[in-house]
Amino acid sequence: MSEDAEQQAEEIEVLKSIYEGDENFKQVDATTYQYKYIEGDKSFVLEIKWGPTYPTEKPKCNLEIFYNQHLLPSVKEKILAIVDAEAEQWVGCAMTYTLFECLKEKVAEILSEQTEEAVVARVEKIAIDDQTESKKPEKKEQLTKAQKRRAWDRAEIGRAGEKPRGWDWVDIVKHLSQAPHQPSS
After folding, report:
1. Helices 96-104 and 3-18 meet at what angle, rounded to 10?
2. Which CATH number is 97's domain given?
């Protein structure tokens, strides 16, 4: 087992023990971890993914998660800049806990730029863009009477020239109602 793999295994144990019972921490898989930051009614999720040579290389930090759609691009850039600067200092050491914790201290400052007016304006812009792209209804192909008749004839006979099952069956109720019932004497 390589030294990086040993350090990763050790860090997994440490993270599990530290964040045990913390609803905001989530281990997605063996090398991907997420932490949810909440400040009032605003929140975001930071995902950290380890590469094969972590911790001798910086982990990949991701904010492009469905949960973070409401975040403004400037806020995302600020978060990634803070995490990247912190990760630079800790290359060669286990840093997932440190990266999560450095953001905890700055959540209020980071989310202060995330104003509801900006989010509402962005949503309205998206809604307006959707409305301008009106879709034209598709036109149905118009068939002539002769084309319709041929289509019906083909459907009744079938593709192989066979008539459908029961085409010559007699309606039993209709047939019996036409013939008078004769009681046997």
Report:
1. 40
2. 3.10.110.10
Residue 51 resides in a domain = yes
CA separation for the pair 63, 73 (Å, rounded): 10
For the chain, 185 residues long, the average pLDDT of each consecutive 10-residue run is 81 89 90 90 90 88 88 88 89 87 86 70 63 65 85 66 70 73 65
Rg of the chain on CA atoms, in Å:
34
Number of domains in the chain: 1
Q: Which domain range does residue 46 map to?
A: 3-127
Tokens of 88: 């630079």
User: Quick one: which of 103, 116, 97 has its CA closest to 42?
Assistant: 116
Amino acid at 148: K
